[in-house]
Design goal:
Elements lengths: L2 H23 L2 H18 L7 H19 L6 H6 L9 H5 L3 H10 L4 H11 L5 H8 L3 H21 L6
Helix pairs in contact: 1-2, 1-3, 2-3, 3-8, 7-9, 8-9
Length: 168
């Protein structure tokens, strides 16, 4: 892969790959490390004839996350998860990443639906991937992605209405 192509890919997709990984691991340092590892793998293994670089980067990032997760313990105490949302100065990192109030509400609501539905909706809303691209990434049919996205949206709406969020 040419050096300038990797630089262009990094500039164009680094932030969204970071947000995707952060949504999976909820840890700033881990997400940053996985982003770097994603682009390192791109440098080492991407063939020039690959047609959809963006989807390929998401696939690499997802696989790296699941490799990381399998190395870590399954159960993390809630206290540790809460600590990862704050930096040393006491600034809430989640608020910095999701400045828009509606996106923050959506992010909170996403935490209350199933993992696969959450991942599909995250890839759609934050990653901007099509259902076909998500199907390839998750290795499921596009129809299954469509159904899971529909059900996830329905669960999101139900949750948000129950919490009194204004959906207009």
């Amino acid at each position: 892969m040419q050096k300038h192509l990797l630089r262009q890919l990094y500039i164009k997709y680094q932030k969204e790959i970071y947000l995707y990984l952060f949504s999976l691991c909820r840890n700033r340092e881990v997400a940053e490390d996985l982003v770097q590892e994603t682009f390192l793998k791109a440098l080492l293994s991407l063939k020039d004839e690959h047609t959809n670089m963006r989807a390929w980067l998401y696939t690499v990032a997802r696989n790296l996350y699941f490799n990381y997760r399998s190395r870590e313990q399954r159960n993390v105490p809630l206290e540790e998860i809460g600590d990862t949302l704050w930096d040393a100065e006491g600034t809430n990192l989640l608020n910095q990443l999701l400045a828009d109030e509606k996106l923050r509400l959506l992010y909170r609501a996403l935490q209350h639906i199933g993992e696969q539905k959450r991942e599909i909706l995250t890839l759609q809303y934050y990653g901007g991937l099509s259902q076909k691209e998500i199907a390839v990434l998750l290795r499921i049919s596009p129809e299954n992605v469509r159904v899971l996205a529909y059900r996830g949206k329905r669960e999101l709406k139900k949750y948000m209405e129950a919490k009194g969020y204004d959906l207009s």
